[in-house]
Design a protein that fits this description.
Blueprint: E1 2-13, E2 16-21, E3 32-33, E4 36-38, H1 45-57, E5 60-73, E6 77-90, E7 100-104, H2 116-125
Length: 129
């Protein structure tokens, strides 16, 4: 079984988190996610996030502490998403890859259809009910 490790950025500013909708033609199209990407060979999750956020969103970030992990598994693949806090250093967020980007408070995460491996990260960040 193939395993893919993905690094995801938890970008919080002014009480809101940046989430992005996956485009058509990609796995889980139309689902929301914390932006990031596949960790390449010889790359740390932190360096992956710095590279991916510059490519996907046009921003430079500092990567902070690990927050949560989410896992999706079926008969062919395991996707392990590692969520790290990140701080935007400079650049304006642009949707270079995603259909849409939004900033939402964690209390509204339940309104969004997250990709399977991102669900537990969203739940970790959500306030208790």
């Amino acid at each position: 079984m193939q395993e893919i490790v993905v690094a995801a950025a938890i970008l919080e500013e002014d009480g809101t988190f940046l989430i992005a909708r996956r485009p058509r033609g990609k796995p889980f199209p139309g689902k929301w996610e914390f932006p990031g990407g596949k960790v390449e060979i010889q790359e740390t999750p932190e360096s992956c996030l710095m590279r991916e956020l510059e490519e996907e969103l046009g921003i430079k970030v500092a990567v902070g502490e690990f927050v949560a992990e989410g896992v999706f598994q079926d008969e062919k693949i395991t996707i392990r998403v590692l969520g790290y806090r990140a701080t935007r250093l400079h650049g304006e967020v642009k949707a270079n890859v995603h259909d849409e980007i939004r900033r939402v408070p964690a209390s509204e995460f339940s309104r969004f259809d997250f990709a399977p491996a991102d669900v537990s990260i969203a739940e970790t960040l959500s306030p208790p009910q």
